[in-house]
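Reading a protein record of the kind used here takes only a little practice. The record below shows the convention in full:
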Amino acid sequence: MKLPRDLSGAELIKLLCKRHGYRRVNQEGSHVILETDLPRHHRLAIPAHNPLRIGTLNAILRSVAEVKGMQKEDILDPR
């Protein structure tokens, strides 16, 4: 799967909160801190940049996929 080149940090935050059980807990400068407890505790910092760099997006997706036990490609899937 090719990663989107135009995804902003705000869009990714909204997607993770809405579909994957994360909640916004804090903001440190331009980085928003998200947290989830299911299936285990996980904290994540997302830069509120537009657009996100590809390497940054890839690292975030890999981290979420590992915690949630899913494929990285399924995180951005619109279903």
